[in-house]
Design a protein that fits this description.
Layout (H helix, E strand, L loop, with lengths): L1 E4 L5 E8 L4 H11 L4 E2 L7 H7 L6 E5 L5 H4 L5
Antiparallel strand pairs: 1-2, 1-3, 2-4
């Protein structure tokens, strides 16, 4: 999960699935994918979950952001 600020200075977050075993490297990959301010690894995905998401080793996938996260935004579609 990466903390981000939009053009208006509003706080939000982006949740990523990252197919990198080392948590520090996964955080770096997620941070490099957006202009985030801070990040944390919140859980580890199984090989089956990564396959279900279609991720190969080293890939990064956005799962939720401040436009699509059902918890913070009411699940709007892009």
């Amino acid at each position: 999960m990466v903390a981000v600020f939009d053009e208006g200075g509003n706080f939000g977050h982006v949740t990523y699935a990252v197919a990198i075993l080392n948590a520090a490297d996964a955080i770096t990959a997620a941070m490099n994918d957006c202009s985030g301010e801070a990040a944390t690894a919140t859980s580890q995905l199984s090989e089956e979950e990564l396959r279900d998401l279609g991720l190969d080793t080293g890939e990064v996938l956005v799962l939720f952001d401040n436009k699509t996260d059902p918890i913070t935004s009411g699940a709007r579609l892009n």
